[in-house]
Amino acid sequence: MKGSPRHAVLAGFLGWTLDAFDFFIVVFLLDVLAAQFGVPKRHIVNTLTATLVFRPVGAIIFGILADRYGRRIPLMANVIYFSLIELLSGFSHTYTQFLILRALFGIGMGGEWGVGASLAMEQAPRKWRGVLSGILQSGYSIGYLLAAVASRAILPTLGWRWMFWLGALPALLALYIRTKVPESEAWKEHRAGNVGEMLGAVRGHARGFLYLVLLMTFMMFLSHGTQDLYPDFLKERHINATTIPLIAIIYNIGAVVGAVIFGQLSQNIGRRYSMICALAVSFLTIPFWAFGTTVGVLATAAFILQAGVQGAWGIIPVHLNELAPDSVRGLMPGLAYQSGILIAAPTNTIEHMLRDHVGYSWALAGFEIVTIIVLVIVLLAGREERGRSFYSGDVLIEKE
Fold first, then answer.
1. What is the per-residue pLDDT across 264-275, written as a single tens digit (0 to 9) for each?
2. DSSP-assigned letter for residue 324
3. Which has more pLDDT, 393 or 64?
4. CA distance from start to end of the chain
């Protein structure tokens, strides 16, 4: 192993945490922003969709830059970009302004994951890849948790604009990356000569890429279908407004625990079977999560369900990076990831529409039951390269 992975993993973790914080702020402001801009709540839900739709654009831009010029500088530029857009979001005075800024934010959010994950996984020792992958991906849940905390601590006292203005603070992360994070040795060894070579590498692995897009589409249905509208679902269950962020904090703690546990389990039983185990946990919890009648049942079920959801997600960084060609590890995993979110972008809109026909509980439960069943089938039909080397001369210890 060349160099310490500590700073690279921390940079990727913090970048994804702060990115997720900036995204999930909107989840807790659906009613507030609808009233502020004088539009129906579904219009604010559509801004979440706009963010998701533009994420593949960021994956392409920053992924190509990362494979051509290294991981560090594009990651720094990405962090500064999405921090600036978040700052400007707090100055929005019309719905149109806000919608445009949230779409632009999607470009930054789409670029961060691929670059940060490749930088972290390329520097992580193989025996620790699983657990470090879980830690890296858990930044998403930590960001959600921090957004819940902000909705309790900042929104009532300083107002909604300050929640976005605080989202500019991640720009300081660029200084940490600049001074502490080494460039990836794997990138130096396998760097592509030009954009044509990168695109050729992706085309040469077209079947594998399309499989990853399919996998990521249903993984997005899983995560966004269980997280984005759940606070709004709890509100319609007449849960006290001050209790909802506490429940969100609880289930995001479960998400972090699940990501680490199943990430480490993937070192022992493989990436795909660990993900299937995590999905089984979520599947069995759905009746209590969607149809629970007390705060205690809903909070406990949400904790367990998100432990399974993010337990499966915690394996994604390492799984996608191990399946990607060496020369496009900055581009291909991130592009597959964000292409999945593009296809799954209407998730919130679909669930919100289903709510009007079958009720919120069946809208969430039915959507996720189908999603989990399809995901298990997709995983069983796939492959993995657990323990694959990212460096020449290193012995491949595990391969499936």
1. 899 889 899 999
2. S
3. 64
4. 22
Cα 275 to Cα 308: distance, rounded to the nearest angstrom: 8
Residue at token pair 């970048």: 15
Tokens describing residue 140: 């998403």
Residue among 398, 332, 344, 345 at smallest CA distance from 375: 344
Which residues touch 22 (CB under 8 Å, ≥6 apart)? 82, 86, 105, 109, 143, 164, 167, 170
Q: Cα-atom radius of gyration of the chain, to the nearest Å?
A: 20
Nearest to 20 by CA among 137, 122, 99: 137
Q: Supply the DSSP symbol for 26.
A: G
Residue 34 near residue 323 (C-beta atoms within 8 A):
no
What digits encode the pLDDT tens for the residues 189-237? 667 666 666 777 677 677 888 999 999 999 999 998 998 888 888 888 8
66: exposed, middle or buried (C-beta count within 10 Å: 0-12, 13-18, 19+)? buried
* Per-residue CA distances from 343 to 60, 105, 108, 216, 281 (Å): 16, 18, 18, 9, 25
Asked whether 249 and 145 are in contact (CB, 8 A), the reply is yes
Whole-number Å distance between alpha carbons of 19 and 146? 11
Q: Provide the token pair at 39.
A: 């539009």
For residues 303 and 250, the answer to whether their CB atoms sit within 8 Å is yes
Question: Torsion angle, CA of 56/58/63/64, rounded to 10 degrees?
Answer: 100
**Burial zone of 184 (CB within 10 Å; 0-12 exposed, 13-18 middle, 19+ buried):** buried
Query: Which among 235, 228, 260 has a CA at the least distance from the CA of 134?
Result: 260
Class of residue 86 by CB neighbours under 10 A (exposed 0-12, middle 13-18, buried 19+): buried
| Structure token digits, residue 214 | 């399919």
Residue 342 CA to residue 52 CA, distance in Å, equals: 6
CATH architecture of 6-381: Up-down Bundle (1.20)
Distance CA 222, CA 289 (A): 14
Query: For 271-274, which contacts have Cβ atoms below 8 Å and span 24 or more sequence positions?
Result: 271/130, 271/315, 271/318, 271/319, 271/322, 271/384, 271/386, 272/319, 272/379, 272/380, 272/382, 272/384, 274/130, 274/311, 274/312, 274/315
Reported as a single tens digit per residue, the pLDDT across 280-303 is 999 999 999 999 989 999 999 999
Can you give the length of the chain in residues?
400
39 CB neighbour count, 10 Å cutoff: 18
